[in-house]
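Might you be able to check the backbone structure tokens below? Thank you kindly.
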Amino acid sequence: MSTIYPFPPVNNSFDGLTGDVREETEAQMEKNWQKIEGWGYHGDAALLSDETGATASFTYNGRNFCVWSKRRSDFGVMDILLDGVSLAKVDLYGIHWPKDDGYRAAPVYCSAYVERGEHTVTLKAAGEKNPISKGMSVSADAVEFQK
């Protein structure tokens, strides 16, 4: 069973990612996603879905990776898969006062000890939410990886 992380797990296995970034424009999407633009997203845009089971997949050649997203009061839980295997569930709930436009995008999950090679990271709307969240939407913003 996957663990739901309210904040990204700390990963000290490498000193920052010196690789590349896959933006939302490079995602292979299944089900309903919409492009959203605005302040604080990596590259000023992201994908948003509230449909359970919606996936956005990013392929890269390298090692470790970090998933970027905002946190908002209407966000739910995102399942993170690597090569089809679930690694974690991340709770994207968060509130920013005085207006709820979400926190600035940041890494919400970073992997550890991924063997170098071609990989696919899949971000999946889990259809779950924090009890105090107003919704179950998830944001697929970017995947940063280490070459």
